[in-house]
Each structure stands twice: as structure tokens, then as C-alpha cells.
Amino acid sequence: MKVRDLESSSSSVPLLYQEDESSSQIKILSTFLSAVTAAALLLLLVTLVLIEPDAGHRTPVVIFPASRGVSEGVSDKSTASLLGSSLTGYPWTKAILQWQRTGFHFQPEKNWMNDPDGPLFYKGWYHIFYQYNPDSAVWGNITWGHAVSRDLIHWLHLPLTLVPDHWYDANGVWTGSATFLPDGRIVMVYTGSTTELVQVQNLAYPADLDDPLLLNWLKSDANPVLLPPPGIGVKDFRDPTTAWYDAADAAWKLAIGSKDENHNGICLIYRTHDFIAYELLPGVLHSVPGTGMWECIDFYPVSTDSEVGLDTSVPPGPSVRHVLKASLDDDKHDYYAIGTYDLAAGQWVPDDAEADVGIGLRYDYGKYYASKTFFDTAKGRRVLWGWTGETDSERTDLLKGWASVMTIPRTVLFDQKTGSNLLQWPVEEVESLRLSSQDFKNIDIDIGSVVLLNISRTTQLDIFAEFEIEGESLIATVEADLGYNCSTSGGAAGRGVLGPFGFLVLSDEELSEQTAVCFYVVRNVDGELKTFFCQDELRSSKADDIVKRVYGSIVPVLSGEILTVRILVDHSIVESFAQGGRTCITSRIYPTKAIDGVAKLFLFNNGTGAKVTAKSIKIWQMNSAFIRPYPLEA
Length: 634
Known about the structure:
- By secondary structure, the protein is mainly beta.
- The chain has 3 domains: about 20-90, no CATH class; about 110-425, Glycosyl hydrolase domain, family 43 (Tachylectin-2, Chain A), CATH 2.115.10; about 430-620, Exo-inulinase, domain 1 (Jelly Rolls, Sandwich).
- It is built from 5 helices and 37 strands.
- The strands form 7 sheets. The chain has a 7-stranded antiparallel beta sheet with strand order 1-26-35-28-29-30-31, with no helix packed on it. Strands 21-2-3-4-5-37 form a 6-stranded mixed beta sheet. A 6-stranded antiparallel beta sheet has the order 25-36-27-32-33-34.
- Strand 33 (about 575-580) and strand 34 form a beta hairpin.
């Protein structure tokens, strides 16, 4: 291990990369020349527009829209509004773009992907369907891609499942969910965007239930089976849930997200006996003022006294709570709350009104959206899928030919210790990819220091670590720190008495590129300690045509618990889980230097008054999942 002492630096933020004077002068000159070049290019562009071109020699101009998908009635699928409209971008090389492709996360062979759809387990195979553009690496022409796996990790691509070939889904086969019927049949209810951009719900089902791969699907002659009800906008009616059976009512029920005229997020409930005829139930399942359009609703039961998943149709009871989740179109985050479902009244009430859907807990505090769960009948668990889009530019996505990945599927359990949140954890099958491992014990991370861990390769890792703050430091810290926030307090460079400290992943040796996964402990006015878990992308890349943020939130830490974190590093995606999955963060990372053999792994302590010890660290090299097409016979 190599220890670097940054405390003696004159900088108050030692984790900020410091350029020398010559580099700074070169950068100023480079910036000046870039500005001149950009001005010249702009003048040339204006000239080309004003001069009538030869009709036989037109030069195509690629224009990227300020948003993508909004006018069609879905959440924005472009980063253009966040990146601006600069004429130039980072000069990505083919080698760097190839490095960005993940080794063990699910993604198509090429082109655009977004929401997971209808995940299920059938005849020995896990199935994932997903929003897919077969023609390009940007959103549009949405069809359903399809893949299967024996273990949720090693995926095999199959032919497209549903394509936009009817008037009721001509502008997109959008998000849907699967429901198993008692006789073994499967029904898939999905949103279609019609020729007139009206959002309707449609029914599809497998053509051959004897086929374990479910290759062919039929669309019902009754489509569309649901139209937007009165008072609901034609572009505000999408993403039906898995249905649950209400035995007392002898009927199936499913939920659809929307918003009302006052911009309140709402969840509509429908009753059906055959998935063709539906009745809209009075009122709404739930509503939260000011939260806007609720996309990709999910609604399912969790056990409060066991570590098993529950089928979606398990009714409310003494040891059963229900989770309501919504993807908020307004801020592109997935919020959830735990509460009580009143079957008779058709309403759900959160346990904590101040932590309601859209204003409280999130599944993930990073780049994570449009998630969907399913009940895994093979292992009796609830499994969560999530989509993480790119945070680079559409220009770059077109260069590399693909966009978006799925996070590693996660198990979902009620946290019996806190009683107030869920626990999310990577499915156990991902551990089958573990190769060689290295263990580190009792590493002292002094104030202001960075410690290099001697790891041969650092771009595909599974890391588990336990941290402890020296007891005397905790006792000596008496001043309250009320203003800290992961996103607004400078990230890993913002120093406090008890943090931040943790890991720097995908870092080069000079720390010019680094992604911090860290804890930050503060003392409240009442004297109690509060712990933040953060992920800092601000110095993750030297490129400037990507969105870089600091993500994070409070993570509950109970008396006597040690701080723990698990990190999955897989090229351009980093998933982190604090305290057994109470708080989770996903980032997309695009380093320009810290790739392949250059990438390093560090521990760091940027606090000003706390000695931190990494009590235990175990790091596994991870194999690739070798995701590929299924070898179908010709």
C-alpha cells in the first residue's frame, strides 16, 4: 500500500486535482484557441446556411434536439438540456469508447435501450423485455427487445418481441407488465402510443405456452383495451403494473400512473375479470400534491417479519406492508414509500406522510429510473430491475453505437431493523462472476491522506468494506454541522470534521480523474450523529461533454453498527450499496485516462478531525458475463 499525505498541502480541498502553472497557462491558451476556432466554425456554418448550396452536393448537418420524447408524451430521453449546445465535444477515441461498454451488466448488442418491461420467470428461464430502438443509439421507434437467462446474469439475446405495427401502438410499444393467471397463462398489458399520440393500454400474450423462450407473442383483437378516462390527458396515461388478484372481490386489479389538472401525481386503479373489459374504480389508490406525472408505477407487498419475497397478490395482513413506487417525470428519480393497503376502500396510506411517494425515499440516489419488480417464483424473492441511461452526449452515443445499461438485478426486502425502509442487494448470482480476491485488514487512513490499494486490475470489481471512526474523534466532535448535503456541499472535496472518507474508484495515479464513494458523518443539534452516503462524479473525467454530479442522501446507521459499503465497478457504471442496501447510488463514469491498466483504487480521508480505519476490505476481480445472441436454429 502506498500512502499519500495531502494534509500538508496548502489547499483546503486536497482531493481537488491541482494543475501546475505551466499546465494552467497551456490550458488558458488552449481555451482561447478553442474559442477562436468555435467562432470560426460558427461563422462558417452561418455562411453555409446563407449561401444557396448546389442541389446535387448538399452536406448533411446533424442537429440534436433540445429534448427527445417529451413531445411524444414520455419523459425526456436526452441530456441535451443539461449539456447545452456546444459545437464541439471531447475527442473520444475508439479505444476509450470500447472500454465504456460493460462486462457483466445487461445491455443490447447495439443501439438505444430504456425501461425494463415484463420481467418474469418461466419454465427455467428468466426473461427481460425492454424498450429498444432497433435503428439508432438515440430514443425513438420504440419496440420491445427480449433476452433470457438461467441466472439473471448470463443473458442471451432473442429476436424482437413486440413492434409498433398497429394504429394503437404505431408511435411506440411502451412500458408494460406481465401477470400470471392461475391456469398458467401469461398476459402482458402494455402502453401503446397511437397514430394520434394518444396513450392507450393494450393486451398481448404468448403464442405458444409450450415454448420456454416465449419467442412469439400475439396482440389481442380487442386492443386497445383501455383509453384515457375523462379528466386525464391523452399523454398522461401510461405504464400499467402487474395485476394482483383480490379474492374478496373475485377480480384482478392493476394500477396506472398519471397526474391531475393540478399537477398532482396520481395512481388509478382498474378492475378486470378477463384483462379485456375494465372498470375504473372510484377515487385513486393514492395521490401526492405537486409531484407531477407518475410513470412506471409499481405496487407490491413485502413481509415485515421474514426475509422472503411475496407474490404480488398476497393480501394485506398483520405482517404485510405494501410498497408504492413511482418514477417522477419532473425530476427523473424513482421514489417509493411503505404503507398500508386497504383493499375494501381501494386506497393506500403511507406509514410516514412526510416521506410520501415523490418527497421521501428513493430506490437509488444516482442515475436510475423506470424500475420494475417481479416475484421470482423459482427462489421466492422479489427482484428489482432498473434502467441507467447515459450521461454523455447523443453525439458520443452515436459514435459508440449504443446507449444505456440495466443495473444488476436486486433483491428487495423490508428492513426489519429500521422498520422504515427497504433493503436492496445485488442478486446472489452475480457472485458467480467472482474470480481472484484480495483481503486488507485494519488500514489506518489518517486525516488528509490517500492510500493506494495494490490491485492489479480495477475496472471490473466487487468490493465490500467496513469502516470505523476512532472513538475519541467522535467524542471530541461537539459542534453541530447542519448545512451538509451530498449534492451541494462540494462532494468529496468539501471537508468536515468527520468526513468525507471512503474509496476513490476509477482514478488515475495523479488523482486527476477520480470517482469518490464515501461517508460523511455530522452531529445534529440534539447531539446525535447522522451519516450521509455520497457518490462524487465531479472529477470523474477530464471530458466536459458529460453530466457530472454529486449524488447521495442520509443512510440510517443504528447504534452499534459499523459503516459498511459494497461497490460494483464495471467500466462505465458504478453501483454502491451502504449499510446492507439501505441507501443505493448508481453512477455512469467516462474517464479519459483512468481506464484499463491506468485505473487505480484508493482509500481516502478528507476529514479534518477524524482518524478512520478500514477494518476489513475484500475485493474480487469480476469475470465478464459474455452476453451474446441465443443460438437459435436456422
